[in-house]
Structure formats: C-alpha cells, structure tokens
Amino acid sequence: MPYKLSELAHLLKATWSGQDVEINGVNALAYAQEGEISFVESPRFLEEAKASKASALIVSPALKEKLVNRNLLVVPNPRVALAKIAWLFYREPRPEPGISPLAFVAEGAEIHESASVLPFVYVGKGARIEAGVILYPGVFVGEEVFIGRESIIYPNAVLYPRTRIGQRVIIHAGAVIGADGFGFAFDGEKHLKIPHFGHVEIEDEVEIGANTAVDRATFGVTLIKKGAKLDNLIQVAHNVEIGQASVLAAQVGLTGSVRIGNYVMIGGQAGINNQVGDQALIAAKAGVAKPVPPKTAVAGAPAIEIGKWRRCVAAYERLPEILKEIRELSRRLAVLEEALNGRKDPQS
C-alpha cells in the first residue's frame, strides 16, 4: 500500500517539505529508486543523498537546509523514523495456521488453532502454544514449555523442558534455550556434574539471534527481560539476568549469575564476569572483571573507564617513540654523569 509523504508525516507526527509524493517502499541511499524513501543519518552522507534517486529523504532538522530542492520528511531521529516506516512496507510470508501431519505433538500438549506448526516440529507433553505462534521445521519444544502469543521460533531452535517464552518473541535458527549450565564440582580426581533444576524465562518482545545459547538456572531462573535484543552466537550462562531493552552484540559471553541492568549496550566479543549497572556501555572485546556502575562506559581487557582507556591506547601507540626517547635520555644522562665524575677532586 503506497503512502503520501504527508501521510507518513502525520503517522510520525513529523513535518515535511517539497512535493507530496507517493511512497511505495524504503531503501538505502545507493539503491533507492523513484517512489522509494531513504534516510540520511549524518552529514557524511550528504553527497550520497544529493545523488540518490529516492523520491524523498528522512532527515534531521540540522540537515534540512543542506538538501534544497528535495522532498523531505523532517524528524528528530531519522533512524527511529526509518524503523517505523519500514514496517509499513515489509511483508514476510506467513505459514497457514494448523499442525502439519509431519509434526509430532505429544499427548497433553495444547496448541491454539491459529498457531502454525510446520513439518518435523516436536512438541512435548504438557507444552502450551498460544495464538499466532509459528514453529518452523525442526523446532524442538520440550515438556511443559510455554510459548506466548505471536512468537516466532525459526528452524532447528531448541526449547528445553519448562522454558517459558513471552509474547511476540523471536528466536532465530539454531538457538538453544534451556540447556544445562556449565556447573561441575572437582573432587580431586574428576569433575562431578551438578544437575540444574531451574529454567529459562524470556519476557515479551525479546529477540534471540541465530545459534545463541541461553543456559537454564542451577536453581531458580535465567531471566531475559522485556525488549532485550541478543545478536547471533552469544553465550548466556546459568542464572544470568539481562535487563529490559538491553542490547548484546555477537559473541558476547556472560558468566554464571551475572546481572545486566536495563538499557545496557554490550559490544561484540565482550566477556562479562561481574555486575553491569543500568544504561552502562561495554565496548567491543572488553573484559569486565569488576562491577560497572550505572551510566558508565568501559573498554579494554581488563575493562576500565573509557576515557582512561582511550588515553592508554594513545600512549600505547606512542610506545616505540617513547622508548626511543628514553634510550636517548639514558645515553645523555650517562654522558653527563661521566663528565661530572671526571670533574671530581680525587682527594675529596
């Protein structure tokens, strides 16, 4: 369905300028064609924006005057506007409701009539699947698993017994939710496995990336709170708690019982072995061994305050030059000492 530029402005409570063109899609600046809208995040994209074939551009007020003779949708945050507009044009094929005859559903499982259960899905005893859920081929749903309304579980994901999934959750292919945590006790000869009695709970509107693993709790719950977003290939250990709307990039590793606050951002390949406060920022490849206070940015391994880390990096880059200077100073000092020693009175 196409939208006039004025209609998009009304939906976003934004302003617009230029011609009230019809928009039937969204695209990147380099790929956009007539009838599509694109976005300009920063001044470094201005030249590309001027050359773009897009019929309209989403811009911030600061860039409006730099794009004359273009049809503009003016918003405080172009990226947020893009996210909202994109869903108006995005269409993903949806499987028909019903249970495939090639799926296995155990006795006692409850599946809403509007859910879609595709071939080669396994649904265990006592599982409950609510309205609008989609289970793609190869999904394993263990005993007593609960999956809330309109959640989507992509191919070959595994939900261990007693896992609880909220509403509108997306779990991508190959993710494993609820496996044993890495818990062992060494008796001097061998590592004794500790059984895990807990479970995993994922609240509403969480997204779990492909091949991410979320281990169940030893006792109690491993909890991922509402709106959190986890990228691919993340390890979440037993009894971890991830706060509301926190975002974790690929290959992050969280050790057992770590608490991540609300609205935290963690860069790729960071390792977290302590508590992280609300709205903290953890840079990529950081190694967090000490608690991170709320609203603090850290980087490095071991992680330190990001301003200090930048100064350390700047100094590190100058180490060869500094070493050369030290050697020169040492040489000059030796010459000076030799000269001073030569002036001393032998009788003194």
From TrEMBL:
Group of enzyme by EC: transferase
Protein biosynthesis recorded as keyword: no
Keyword flag Acyltransferase: yes
Gene Ontology cellular component annotations, sorted alphabetically: membrane
InterPro entries, alphabetized: Hexapep, Hexapep_transf_CS, LpxD, Trimer_LpxA-like_sf, UDP_GlcNAc_AcTrfase_non-rep
Annotated SUPFAM superfamilies: Trimeric LpxA-like enzymes
Protein family (similarity comment): Belongs to the transferase hexapeptide repeat family. LpxD subfamily.
Name of the protein: UDP-3-O-acylglucosamine N-acyltransferase
